């Protein structure tokens, strides 16, 4: 009888890949975790309890078949594990690195609930696909036959790239338009290299290019370009994401030294590519030697504080108006930031900014902070922060980064498409299952529909939308053939 390869969670403890020391990782933008060795990946995969109802799978937006590829990894059948992983996820090596597993698959692992520590699903997922690339198991995009249909994808972020991948594999002619000079969206310019090294993203972009997907970069779509794209294609998929930063209208908020998170992170990532960035070189978007205050508690704020540490900031503090238990960002990322030297000021909110005259205008010197306490729950069930009167203080700052989230741009106005319906939040009104909008042949996916969300949801939307587009084409062809 074959030896049972699974259910070893009682005997084997959870063990993440080795994390580089905080001192070491503060000095560069490389990923902080080492790769699993083959034996360790097998060992950790063998802890899976092979649940009859796998909550890890049901809480994954892509419904990845996690128990099966864990079992195959434990048995040493890694190429088969990769095939199952790739079947439901266009970019498993990216999700393995940046998904908040503690809130999704790992956070719902049954053995975690029983006190044994969750299976390290994300680390194994990353290991499987990294190995697949190394071993040459990742197949080129080679459609069996070309189809005549032409699809334009506006936005080269994870949702747009996932849709392009599915459509091109089916043989469609796909063109991706993007405002930046490199594809990848926030994967490229928003997420720092210590979470996702850029060669991982560029490798997938090159795979799409080699497979026949055309990219039109440095293309900021306006009304004329949208009209031209629509006239030349059988379908359009809008995957622009949400890039309009939420702002603070407080006293002194226009002073120099107060910057948006997206500008700050983009500059840092461009420098990582070797680009010359004037605002970084001048110090405007560079934390070196400065007292940095980041305002916000989401994953973008965590990216900013950890970037500032690596740029050599004198000090880095994060202001968040609720407590640690109620912050929206990943607890894992918060722990990493604390290890690296970030100081979190919980229950603290900005009231205004302290400035002084300087060359070219006022310059920020501090943040007026008001202390908070948690009161009654708001409409979402979270406790609403309340101001503690008389507890204000000033936090010194040379650089303030606003990481308050993102809102959608006014696409109907920008593109002169009033019939492109939007919700009261400004997101495009589209079917969640297909991405179909109220405009014939026009679809929308990802954050421009959901609002600021997770990369894994954008991938899910891109795959679902591409399948719906293909089904629509096939239905029309069937009707025409009758």
UniProtKB/TrEMBL annotation:
Domain Dihydroprymidine dehydrogenase, chain residue ranges per copy: 26-136
Molecular functions per Gene Ontology: 4 iron, 4 sulfur cluster binding; metal ion binding; oxidoreductase activity
InterPro entries (UniProt xref): DPD_II, FAD/NAD-bd_sf, FAD/NAD-binding_dom, GltD-like, Helical_ferredxn
The UniProt record lists the keyword 4Fe-4S: yes
Keyword Metal-binding tagged: yes
Domain FAD/NAD(P)-binding, chain residue ranges per copy: 150-462
Pfam families: Fer4_20, Pyr_redox_2
Keywords: 4Fe-4S, Iron, Iron-sulfur, Metal-binding, Oxidoreductase
PANTHER family membership: GLUTAMATE SYNTHASE [NADPH] SMALL CHAIN, GLUTAMATE SYNTHASE [NADPH] SMALL CHAIN-RELATED
Protein name (Swiss-Prot/TrEMBL): Dihydropyrimidine dehydrogenase
Species annotation: Marinibacterium profundimaris
Organism lineage string: Bacteria, Pseudomonadati, Pseudomonadota, Alphaproteobacteria, Rhodobacterales
């Amino acid at each position: 009888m074959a030896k049972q390869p699974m259910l070893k969670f009682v005997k084997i403890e959870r063990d993440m890949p080795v994390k580089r020391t905080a001192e070491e990782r503060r000095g560069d933008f490389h990923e902080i975790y080492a790769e699993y060795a083959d034996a360790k990946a097998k060992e950790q995969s063998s802890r899976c309890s092979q649940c009859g109802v796998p909550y890890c799978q049901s809480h994954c937006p892509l419904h990845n078949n996690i128990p099966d590829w864990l079992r195959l990894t434990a048995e040493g059948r890694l190429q088969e594990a990769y095939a199952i992983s790739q079947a439901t996820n266009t970019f498993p090596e990216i999700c393995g690195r940046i998904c908040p597993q503690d809130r999704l698959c790992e956070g719902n692992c049954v053995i975690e609930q029983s006190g044994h520590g969750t299976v390290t699903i994300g680390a194994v997922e990353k290991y499987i696909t990294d190995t697949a690339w190394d071993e040459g198991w990742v197949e080129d995009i080679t459609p069996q036959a070309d189809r005549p249909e032409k699809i334009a994808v506006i936005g080269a972020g994870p949702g747009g790239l996932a849709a392009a991948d599915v459509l091109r594999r089916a043989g469609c002619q796909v063109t991706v338009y993007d405002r930046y000079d490199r594809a990848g969206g926030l994967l490229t310019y928003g997420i720092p290299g210590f979470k996702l090294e850029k060669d991982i993203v560029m490798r997938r972009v090159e795979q799409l290019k080699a497979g026949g997907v055309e990219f039109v970069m440095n293309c900021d779509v306006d009304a004329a370009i949208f009209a031209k794209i629509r006239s030349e294609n059988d379908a359009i998929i809008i995957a622009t994401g949400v890039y309009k930063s939420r702002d603070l209208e407080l006293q002194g908020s226009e002073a120099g030294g107060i910057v948006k998170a997206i500008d700050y992170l983009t500059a840092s990532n461009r420098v990582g590519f070797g680009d010359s960035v004037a605002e970084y070189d001048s110090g405007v978007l560079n934390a070196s030697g400065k007292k940095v205050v980041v305002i916000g508690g989401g994953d973008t704020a965590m990216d900013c504080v950890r970037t500032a540490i690596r740029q050599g900031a004198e000090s880095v503090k994060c202001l968040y108006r609720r407590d640690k238990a109620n912050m929206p960002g990943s607890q894992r990322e918060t722990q990493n930031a604390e290890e690296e030297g970030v100081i979190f000021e919980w229950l603290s909110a900005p009231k205004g900014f302290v400035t002084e005259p300087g060359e070219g205008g006022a310059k920020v010197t501090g943040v007026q902070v008001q202390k908070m306490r948690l009161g009654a729950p708001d409409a979402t069930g979270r406790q609403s922060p309340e101001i503690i009167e008389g507890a204000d203080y000033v936090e010194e700052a040379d650089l303030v980064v606003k990481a308050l989230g993102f809102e959608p741009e006014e696409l109907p106005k920008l593109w002169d498409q009033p019939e492109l319906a939007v919700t009261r939040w400004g997101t495009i009104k589209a079917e969640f299952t297909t991405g179909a909008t109220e405009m014939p042949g026009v679809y929308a996916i990802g954050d421009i529909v959901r609002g600021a969300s997770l990369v894994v949801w954008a991938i899910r939307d891109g795959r679902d939308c591409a399948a719906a587009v293909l089904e629509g084409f096939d239905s029309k062809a069937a009707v025409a053939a009758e």
